[in-house]
Every structure is written in structure tokens, then in C-alpha cells.
Amino acid sequence: MPLPPRADVEGRFPHFPDSWLSAYSLVLRAEKHAKEQLDASYDKESVMEWKCKVMDARVMGFFIIELYSVRTLGDTPITCIIRQVTSNGQQGQDDNEVVYGLGKQYREVFMRAFRSKGQIPHPSSHVSRPSFDTLEDMTHDCLEPAPSDHRTSKRRALARDSFRCMLTGVYDERSCEESEQLATQADASPEGSGYTQCCHILNEAVTIGIDPTSTEPKTEAKTRYAATVLTMLRQFGLGTVADQFLTAGGIHHLSNILTVLGHLHQYLDDFKAWLEPTTEDHCYQVRFHRAASAKQFPTLRSPVRFEVNPMVASRGLPLPDARLIALHATCAKVAHMSGAAEHWDSVERRVETTNVLAEDVFKHRSCVLVPQALYNDSKWLFLEATDPQYSAGRV
To answer: How far is 363 from 97, CA to CA, in rounded Å?
Structure first.
């Protein structure tokens, strides 16, 4: 989708500062230049290069528009982007190349950190877990120990969310198996029960396995990737959130977690659904890229208000951070408007249909065939499933 003209932005946002409009004009010029170069290109490499630059200019333009629209985040994020767009050019760099470089970084690093593609873990209760006499017993059992991994954070989130999907009200199937009292409630409810999952707003793979002291190349690459993502969060005014993610198990903090149905989790992870903040605290409109997708969730609540289970209200369990939710929604919308989402889907479909899994007959390790430059796919290579680019959700 082309960026709207400057006049349209001025009309939509009458209080948009002149300096921000000037930065937006730089992005418009970069988009125009890339489109002209694309139209004049004939060989495959040039076409792909300028397609990506058109997309990257649009990433920056739509980020400016969407971040200004989302007041949950304040002015810090958009001020950061405006400064990045304008200050680098003042240092003697070509204005267009500055925009393309920034767009590529936001597309490849920041936006991908909120998107996960691949197998979703399905943590289940331990086989020896007892049934509980009361729902209160099960609730308090879920709060020990503190979350340090996917499984424990899943149980604490369930206790916080009354053992229900936060968006549909469907009761968690496994919890119903552990509590007859909960099962009775589910049986009597219009929502019924189903399998829920622990959905991380910021991809949990971003910080797992990082080690600043390691000299192992893959760990170093993964640590650099995580450091870049967390730095960008700090620049957007989320320094305390970034610090939390650096603590042991911090990515599993309840402020980064939603309890949702398994297939709804997939929609959120793949930017096919997102939550738009409303003017009320912890209240959101549920949006889908395709309206038809919502029809498979008949009990979907929109708007939906998040509330802590009254049974554990005194435990201080945090609700999902509204700023992280707003950033996820912004990234999802920018991905679709800029063409990035379509590009990722196209690349991933090619991966899935081109011998996606290969067995390394010499080392007996699983590999995946991916474009050598995921966003300039003229070359291909085999990437081990443990590679940071793979585990961080970049393929």
C-alpha cells in the first residue's frame, strides 16, 4: 500500500508538528525514488533490491503514522523515529539510504521480535499432578514457583486469568481436568472448554540462550540480536520493560503473557490478529487482518477488558503491559500496510515447499532451507534449526 500524501497526513492529524511532517516528507521522497528505480529495473536482483527499498520506506512512513495514532505509547517512540530519520542525513549520509536502512532494521529486527513463526510449545500438566479438592487449591498451586520458564509462566498466567482464554472466555481444558469445580463451571457456560496456550507478546526466543560473555559465534549473534531489540525498546521509552527481559526468566514475566486458545495464539503470533487499545485501561478491540477469521471464534469478546482473577487479586499479578500490546498491534498493522507481511509469507511458503527440512547426513542435525538474505532471496542456504536466525523467529 503506498504511503498517503503529506496533505492527507496533515488533514488527518491537524496538530502534527512541522518537524515531523518534514521527516515524513523525507520518507515520501525515498519511497518515490525507490519506486522509480523499481520501474526502471529489469534484472531479478535489481527488482528484488528496489522492491525491498520501497517496502522499507513504507515501513518507516507507516510507523510514523501509526505511532502518532497510538496515544498509549506517548510521543517517545515517534520522536525517536523522527530523530533517526533526520539526524543521520545531517551527518552526510544520503537521505534515501538512511530511510531504507532504518526501514530494513525495523523490518528485520524490531517487527520480527513481535512475530513468531513455527511450532508453538504445548506445555501440559505433569502426569503425576493430583486433582484438587477446590478451585482455590489449584489456583494457589499454580502460583508456585515464580515463573522462570514457559511451563511455570503458563500456570501462573492461568491463575491470573481465571483459567480462561482472555479473548474468548473459553475455559482451559487441562485445568478442567484437574478441578471438578472448574469443569462444572465450564459445562454450564456458553463458552465451554478448549486447549489454551501461553502467548508471549514479545517473542520468547528473543532473549532465550543469550550470553554476553560467550565467544561462540551463534550465541554471539543471538546476543547481538537481543541487544538490538532491547535497545530499540529503550529508545521507545520502555527501559524498565527491557531491563525486566534481561533478568533470569524475565521474558516469561506475566506482563508479557496472554492466555489464549491455541489457534488464536497462532493468529496473534503471525500478525493475523492484534489488540488495539481503547481509551479505557486494559480494554482492547480485537482486530483480524481478514474479518472472516473472527467467525471461528463465536465467543470472541471485542472490546475485551482484562481483569485479574479476584481469587488472587492480593498477589499483585500484573496484567499484560498495554505498551507491549500497542507495539505488537503497531508492528502488525505496519507489516500489512507496507507489504512486509506479504513478503514474509511469500518467503515462508517457498521455504515450506522447497525441501524445508533436510537431514545433515554427516552431522545428523536438522537443517532448514532458507534464503541466504531472507529479504533478498536470490541465494539459498541450509540453516541449522539451532541457528539464532531460526530460533529468534527470523524464519
So the answer is: 42
Mean pLDDT of the chain: 83
Radius of gyration of the chain, Cα coordinates, nearest whole angstrom: 22
Q: Which residue is associated with the grid cell 499483585?
A: 316
- Whole-model pTM: value is 0.84
The identity of residue 181, as a single letter, is Q
Q: Of the candidates 315, 330, 198, which has an alpha carbon nearest to the alpha carbon of residue 256?
A: 198
For residues 63 and 340, the answer to whether their CB atoms sit within 8 Å is no
| Rounded-to-integer distance, Cα 69 and Cα 231, Å | 23
CA 387/CA 1 separation, integer angstroms: 33
The contacts of residue 8 (CB under 8 Å, 6+ apart) are none
* Beta pairing, strands 366-371 & 283-288: unpaired
Contacts made by residues 90-95, CB under 8 angstroms, sequence distance 24+? 95/26, 95/29, 95/30
Q: What digits encode the pLDDT tens for the residues 234-262?
A: 999 999 999 988 887 789 999 999 999 99
Taking the C-alpha atoms of residue 340 and residue 47, their distance in angstroms, rounded to an integer, is 16
Give the pairing of strands 304-305 and 357-359: unpaired
Cell output for 224: 547481538
